[in-house]
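Morning F.,

Quick status update on the modeling queue. The single chain you submitted on Monday has been processed. Sequence for confirmation:
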Amino acid sequence: MASQEAIPLKTDLLWHYTTFQTFRRIVESQSLLARDYRLLNDGMEIKLGAKWVTDWLGSQEEFDFGNVCPEYFIQQYQDFEDAHCPFVISFSAARDRLSMWRGYADAVHGSDGIAIGFDRADLIKIALASRVFGPEKVAYDREAFEEILASKIRQGLTKFGGWQDYLMLKDIPPFVKSSTFAEEEEWRIVDPNPYLARQRMLTEIGGEYRSVLSLNACDEPLSYKFGIREVLVGPKGNKAAIDNYVRVALQGAEGVQSVTVRKSEIPFI
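Structure tokens below.
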């Protein structure tokens, strides 16, 4: 049953802004769809991420890369855009933000926009079950990104005792975005290359392939049905109607917590 609790001071929610029609498809299919990284709204992202990696690698004189020289990784990145096809699912840490309603929930055209609040702990379980990466925070700042990069390389060297290839590095560029979009506070789940993953299902929508991420295939139990902890109804949405839909569609089994439905505090778009 949907509940009407007071808004907590701190939450661990990641929001997926969309339309009510898409929300219904997500619930009914029990899945999210990841989009080809090359088709995102900023077509330069994939080049930016690869450039930041290669620039950093080329500037390191004292960093210990184990038994593999940084020039090897730089060479591999020259054809990153063509050689790798990561798919991305986007979330935002920004709750009830006007620019997000306008940009991703089609609110300016009168749509019943929805922001699906996913429990981050549940999303981690969902990603692990499907062997994809995330959710991780997108880096808009180059210095912060380089700290993340150095940390990941150290982790890889510690775990494997020396790099045999650049598999870990190739999964980092999809978590980079221009500072122009910093207001979105984006987090991402990244499917490294679904074309090569035999267990991954692809579906065709509007002439492009999407990677399917199941919300109902976890070995560990989720705290919320499909990981959905809260539903935020957009400024033009009908809260009563959506509350009724959620009450039926997201009714949890025993041990699963109820979903909270709230209305946006933004009066109009």
